[in-house]
Structure prediction request, 702 residues.
Amino acid sequence: MPPRSPSPVKPRPRIRGAELEGVISVHPRGFGFVSLQDGAGDVFVPPDDLGGALHNDRVVVRLQGQGARGHEGTVVKVLARGLLRLAGTLRKRGASTFVDPDDARLRGPVTLEPPLLGEDGDAVVVRITRFPEFVRESPVGVVEKVLGRPGELPVEVAKLLAIENVDEPHSHAALLEAAAFGNTVPASMRAGREDLTQIPFVTIDPEDARDHDDAVFVERTHQGGYRVWVAIADVATFVTPNSALDDEAKARGVSVYLPDRALPMLPEALSSKLGSLLADHDRLALCAVIELLASGAHVGTVLKAAVVRICAKLTYGGAAAALGLSARDEDLAVLPHRAHRDMLRVAYELSRILRSRRLRRGALDLDLPEAQVVLDATGVPVDVRRRAEDPGVRRAYQLIEEMMLLANEAVADWLGVHGAPAIFRVHPPPDPQKLERFAAIWELLGGEGTFDVDRASDPKFLSRFVSELAGHPRGSVLQMLLLRALKQASYEVTNTGHFGLASKAYLHFTSPIRRYPDLLVHRIVHEVLAGKRFEGVRLGEVKEGLAEAARLASAAERRAMEVERAVVDLYRAALMRGHLGERFEGTVVSVVGSGVFVSLDSPFVDVMVRLEDLGQEPFEVDMEGLRAVGRRSGDAVALGDRVVVEVMDAILTRRMVVGRRLVEVAHKKERKRVPKRPEKKRPEKKRPAKKTHKKLRGKKGS
Prediction:
């Protein structure tokens, strides 16, 4: 388990000499940024001021004043190491044996201690045995595992898991504890629970779902409203505090989903069997019964510790077909869905009401595609698609999404009424500086009117703006850029609301099989149901434990996201090795110092086109970083442009696909539509607050 950190540091003034705590992210070029623990921005650390800190360490940084990159500082102490192992390539040079880290953010080379396993050029995992104390010092480590030769798909995946410290097998102790419960719910665990096996719950998941946390049943009430039953797998009854299962779940924090397998937070005996809501099996659950008016307004919530029996396992595609939202043959896979069509229609009707209410109150609806890797029987990638491209299937996804959002908010309110602590899911308002950057991009890309930075802190304003981006020629790219202006959601014990959902109180309750914070919320619910009170010294102790768990869970979530994204990129590169020399159309989604990234229409793969491969002349990136421009012709390749590329290379070790732009078949009209930068000088002063995006001016509720 990661070392326990000191108690959270209270916000300190941003003055020279102030010492602040945070996590450092090191750039491949040697400098770093410390993300402060109190959430108040980042501190830039020059290369010579890193001290002994490595990427992802928890450090104390001393402020040195303002610089070109904002607050600057010096690392004065490392509180906890974020990196215990790394992956790299073994090098043998005469009497010296060392490892070059694959991750350019990590300091190297790593000097090795015996036993010196492996051959020159092998991919290896190294456990760090001595960390650097000074800026010029490198780590020392020992080879833990020899993975094989670099460039092979299984080897590269294993390296990624090692880089982020993601373990595949569970500990022997945790496996034994999980297996000891057997295959059926014991009678002792049924005692004191309400029997809800008569409620016809169904699960609705992707066809490749590996665990089933939630089940739903929706009915109309006699008063014309709705009653929503949300049953959530009660794994907290099996995973007790301070057990081996609990220790491992806390350390993992979250399940990791790879294209070919899942790395579950809990052992398979619980995550896929006894703890999972499988059809036609009695299962333990915490059930939220939520009463709503016909308008979707919340009336009340009752929570029950129950025994449930799922009557059907449905899929999003089948549900969409049964509801008439998606064209699909009436095959055997759809038959179970037709049997529940009436309930699905009521649930779908309510989901549209809830979604409409949520968007009206200011929830953001960023429609960004998610990659789905398609494998053949041998595990080789044969395609990468955008998940749920079918509009009807997307609406089936939204049906369950709205039920889960409803349950999470209802439980947050329920715990608040009972004066109980919780781990909340919080999302702060956007960073004003990043919004200023987006406003400049909006203007340079020809957006209508001026994006009002001051009003963008109002979720209703921003929600309406996002909805209007759907009709913009560069809408998908602009949504991606706007997402980068938003802060990352995290887990906290202090409820400050969720900006993205426009929610005053929100938490995670619906996925305890795959998220540790949900499991802890279940424990608190059980205590409230048992009549226990949270006050005085006990309240402080509980909140302190929850705060530490929330910090670890936020870090684990970020780690899992990085692993999942990197592995998908790896599979994309593996797929494109079979398409070298082929031509594809796509959209420019990013402009970097060395070139542009093009997102292909199909397969859903990003291709890097370097500046020298953009045309027959030298190209350079403009000052705004929004387009690459030919030095002689002024030919521009900008964000959102449609281009044709030829795939030149696919490099597994770098998880990158490289291509060149085919100018002779590119759409000239599309390439030339980015307006040139105005000749007049832009004012130095801040944009006046009275300016506003023209489409949004005069609308109510802002």
In short: The chain is about 25% helix and 25% strand. The two ends are 47 Å apart (CA to CA). The longest helix spans residues 536-576. The chain has four domains: 19-80, 85-163, 172-364+372-426+501-567, 580-671.
